[in-house]
Amino acid sequence: MILIKVFLFVAFLVLALLFAYYNLQEVQITLFNYSFKAPLFAVVLGSLGLGLVISQLFNELRILRLKRYAGALKEGLYHLWTGFPSKARKDLGKISKNEEVLPLYLSAYREEGKKPSLYFQEFSEGIAETEVALEIFREDTERAKDLLEKAVGKNPKNLRAKRALVALYFLSGELEKAKKLQEEVISESEKPLKDKEKEIYGSILAHEERDEDIDRYPPSAFTLAFLAFREGNKKGIRYLEIAMERDLHNEVLMVSLEKGWVSQVLMEFLEEKKDSFDPSVLTVFYHGLGMTDKAETLMDKVPEELLKMLKAGCIPNLWVCGYCGKEFSSFRVLCENCLSWNKLRIMRRE
Questions:
Q1: Which of 81-85, 261-265, 290-294 has the highest mean predicted lDDT (pLDDT)?
Q2: Residue 126: inside a domain, yes or no?
Q3: Measured between alpha carbons, how far is 78 from 111 in angstroms, rounded to an integer?
């Protein structure tokens, strides 16, 4: 690298000397009512040098701004992650006009128990709207949807906003909008995430109980339960075996019960593989079908608290979101608390 720099410097010096030798004639220069004569080569080389100095000056100013930005960001992150939100807010406040920093700035506010005022017109990337929407969607879904739609309008490449908007469309029953937008998300997502996004699309189709090619999409417990029921014959066993391989068989069993997708194929498969199922899940399943005699054979393997709830006709919280920990008494393909898809799992009961 040093040799290349030396070579370029020597080459430039030689060319400059040649240019000076062939351009010794003088030219008239006028600047602010002052006139003077100077050799042509001096004018050209001087202009070139001045241009280099000015560009270097601007470059140094840019580097200085970046250093200040990096310093404030580093200090803000350090204080935020070590438990000093007030200091973090002050550090990040210096650069909060940079929209990519705004989620961190708002996190510092939340740590202090405060709510900042934002002027969305100051930002252009839709990050501000997205962050606020994800903060308020539990209390005001319509306002959150409006903010996310504005975020996507400002920046159609804002996939975080699009993913959240798909979830809110789904929760609001606007399934056609959810599917159309999810198709965009699939096409625009990075390659490692495409299968996850396709799985979500398959879950939306299964929610509608559509007869489309759901088996083309990566399976979840929800789609496997639907596919096993839809086939209604021995082909359905294939999907139950996939559930077993993926350790989703307990979830598939409960989804089938809750959705009324119980088939003869499922019952035969259950009889064959019942030792692989969680006794608590089997007990709830048999109670749900009115098969109390089978449920009683599992009494010694089931927590007493669960038995009391079933006898009293109460619906126990069997489901928990693997992402946020929210508990539910019935299955949801989408967690309403954190907007995570296909994360609900059966709670293990000792």
A1: 81-85
A2: yes
A3: 14
Is residue 145 over pLDDT 80?
yes
Is 90 within the bounds of a domain?
Answer: yes
Tell which of 188, 217, 234 closes a domain.
188
Structurally, the chain folds into a number of domains equal to 2
> pTM, whole model, 2 decimals?
0.81
Report yes or no on 197 lying in a domain: no
Residue 158 belongs to domain spanning? 118-188
Q: How confident is the model at residue 11 (pLDDT cuts 50, 70, 90)?
A: confident
197 vs 134, 247, 344, CA distance in Å? 19, 21, 17
Three-class secondary structure assignment of the chain: CHHHHHHHHHHHHHHHHHHHHHCCCEEEEEECCEEEEEEHHHHHHHHHHHHHHHHHHHHHHHHHHHHHHHHHHHHHHHHHHCCCHHHHHHHHHCCCCCHHHHHHHHHHHHHHCCCCCCCHHHCCCCHHHHHHHHHHCCCCHHHHHHHHHHHHHHCCCCHHHHHHHHHHHHHCCCHHHHHHHHHHHHHHCCHHHHHHHHHHHHHHHHHCCCCCCHHHCCCCHHHHHHHHHHHCCCCHHHHHHHHHHCCCHHHHHHHHHHHCCCCHHHHHHHHHHHHHCCHHHHHHHHHHCCCHHHHHCCHHHCCHHHHHHHHCCCCCCCEEECCCCCEECCCCCECCCCCCECCEEECCCC
**What confidence score (pLDDT) does residue 187 get?**
97
pLDDT tens digits, residue range 221-232?
999 999 988 866
